[in-house]
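> forwarded from #structure-qc
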């Protein structure tokens, strides 16, 4: 029989892993929810976030700054892909070509990692502030897992605020439900698409940097994480037809009546 101390420790470890998978899958969920594009290069973007993050931590000597910079760069990568490539395939019944395009990006991004950083696995030492463990209810618990819980909670709160308390969030939520209605109200939905791709890429890069210090760096980590993300989002995540929630943690998505509320907007 499990002791109460061990049960608490196992629960905290499970929560930290669940929070990590939330970070890994949230960017894919957001992009798929609005654009209906299954971005199979998401795993490769996670890998780029990991490699860039570890490299920038050494270059900038600041984990937090490197985390933001690497995530921002990965976000720019996905935004540029959407602007120059994916946008050309909207609304033409070319969903298969979108999938093939993102599959092709997997090979390009994965090979670039091997060219730049080499094909070998790279062990990564955790930053000084995240090393060691603390005693919680009589059992040791890794400090880095506490960091994962805190950054996951921060991202979840930030996304909740963005989607529910800001005007751009309202546009995103309406666009998920009815893109044509948003266009009819005079809103440039293409700019929203690009912004959402940047946010999705940012989340992929951020989660990749966190993951890199959790598992180390490997050219195979992208495809491995893609499989996990697909299981979380496609099988257990987005509701089949409405696309209103993501797992393992849920964001409150609106119903279709939100779209009609934009009639009184000043733009």
């Amino acid at each position: 029989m499990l002791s109460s101390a061990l049960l608490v420790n196992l629960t905290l470890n499970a929560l930290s892993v669940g929070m990590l998978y939330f970070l890994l899958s949230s960017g894919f969920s957001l992009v798929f929810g609005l654009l209906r594009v299954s971005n199979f290069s998401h795993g490769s973007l996670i890998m780029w976030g990991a490699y860039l993050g570890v490299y920038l931590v050494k270059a900038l000597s600041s984990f937090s700054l490197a985390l933001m910079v690497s995530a921002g760069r990965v976000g720019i990568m996905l935004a540029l892909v959407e602007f120059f490539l994916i946008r050309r395939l909207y609304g033409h019944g070319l969903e298969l070509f979108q999938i093939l395009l993102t599959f092709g990006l997997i090979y390009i991004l994965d090979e670039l990692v091997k060219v730049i950083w080499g094909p070998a696995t790279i062990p990564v030492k955790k930053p000084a502030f995240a090393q060691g463990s603390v005693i919680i209810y009589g059992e040791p618990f890794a400090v880095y897992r506490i960091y994962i819980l805190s950054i996951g909670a921060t991202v979840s709160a930030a996304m909740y605020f963005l989607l529910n308390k800001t005007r751009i969030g309202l546009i995103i939520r309406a666009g998920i439900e009815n893109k044509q209605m948003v266009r009819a109200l005079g809103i440039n939905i293409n700019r929203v698409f690009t912004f959402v791709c940047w946010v999705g890429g940012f989340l992929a890069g951020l989660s990749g940097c966190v993951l890199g210090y959790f598992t180390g760096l490997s050219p195979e980590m992208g495809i491995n994480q893609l499989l996990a993300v697909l299981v979380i989002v496609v099988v257990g995540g987005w509701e089949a037809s409405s696309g209103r929630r993501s797992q393992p943690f849920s964001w409150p998505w609106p119903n279709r009546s939100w779209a009609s509320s934009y009639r009184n907007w000043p733009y």
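QC bot note: The mean pLDDT is 85. DSSP finds ten helices and two strands in the chain.
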